[in-house]
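Before relying on records like the one below, remember that each one covers exactly one chain. Contacts with other chains, cofactors or solvent are not represented anywhere in the record.
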Amino acid sequence: MIDEGEFLQRAHLDRTTLEVWIRESWICPDCTTPERAFTEMDLARANLIHDLKHNMGVNDEGLDLILHLIDQMHGLRRALAEALARLPERGKG
């Protein structure tokens, strides 16, 4: 896990921007501990958000849509992998 200070440094973010991203649910830190903690996946997502906003000019509404679609895609991928894992193996016997 990455603490908030390290996350801000590695993501090249200021605290105000991070608070906005958390409020918009673009980044969802682990809040089960007294201090917010972030994962490498949160860091990758922060880098994606930065690229979309600053390098590609995506506005906040477009960013909401893109992140939602990415989340759906990952959820479907996970569900497919779980379903495939439950299938019996073929060709053995």
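The domain at 2-86 is CATH 1.10.1660.10 (Multidrug-efflux Transporter Regulator; Chain: A; Domain 2).
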